[in-house]
User: Fold this.
Amino acid sequence: MAYSFVSHLYCPKCQNTYSADEKANVCACGSPLLVSYDYAGIKAQLTKETLVKRKPDLWRYHELLPVKNKENVTSFGEGMTPLIEMKNLSEEYGIKTVWMKDEGLIHTGSFKARGSAVGVSKAKELNIKEIAMPTNGNAGAAWALYAVKAGIKSHIVMPLDAPLITRKEVYISGANLYLVDGVISDAGKIVARSVKENGWFDVSTLKEPYRIEGKKTMGLEIAEQLDWELPDVIVYPTGGGVGLIGIYKAIKELMELGWVKKDKFPRLVAVQAEGCAPIVKAFNEGKRESEFWQDSKTSAFGINVPKALGDFLVLEAIYETSGCAIAVDDDTILSEQQLIAQKEGAFICPEGAATFAAIRKLRESGWIKSHESVIGLNTGMGIKYPETVEADAPLVGKEEAIY
Assistant:
């Protein structure tokens, strides 16, 4: 039985194809590459019933993942994160059903573990020895730690003001860590020069084809967790946009397999911070690509991406599903983060809080209806961003009682 039914890589812009057995970054035209599979072969081998007997991790979908040899799988048991019904938020927002897909409970504490698990595994299969990438924090931490497990050396460049905890994760892994006084686009320029000079493999966002395949498992899991009945709306915090692109790809593949209804595609929503909202601006102007966002800044550091390489893929996913893009200001993000902790007992990351703040705004505007079902993605643990929370408390004497 085949472990993977990966077929080839293709360019969504010019339709050029590439082998999945050779190292590849982007298409000759500059576009990211996507992975295609032998869907007829998958249909013949894989059934929904088969999945029930498998381990609860993302590798349960290995036929739909690009790693051909199981021996190359690099895993910490990532995947199958809980889909939690947020009943108090449902009441707060006036929406029938609100779920949270909680990626904070995955290895390294963020959804980035999915992309790195599959990306590193494929890099190992392709005999890649050294990788390099820019990061806002969590991706670098995940790739550095997974690379260690795969025997791959990593070189990570992150902005100086990236979350300190993620910097420590990279450092303790033994990766070569570099800091730049700038944003992720500045880090990306350094990586591009270094890759060219040293021959390292560039695993920047969408500059290798396999991170998307790991991220798409969020979409596969959502469908399986809802017994193959998709929600009305899926809301996602968007920086580079790989997660949203992946969820869109996953649902299209499930439709190809006949596992979900073709006439019910969830409306996909890209959420950005007002201090860095290039996708939102492009959407509001009806454009297919975004413009570089000058002087970007937000407390939701993971979505501080001034210009995404795959912006056209994010916008396609939004347009094709009748979705939308929406921006939320930092004060609202941090306020929502606190409200969710106090209403639901969940300490989520600022990017996740942006997602739920957007759900509130979309319900208030009437874009989300009261009878609909909505999934918000929390992409990481709140405790990885301690600087976003003030925790003042009164000092009491040893002999005092509290009232």
About this structure: The chain has a mean pLDDT of 96. The radius of gyration is 21 Å. Residues 328 and 361 are 9 Å apart (CA to CA).
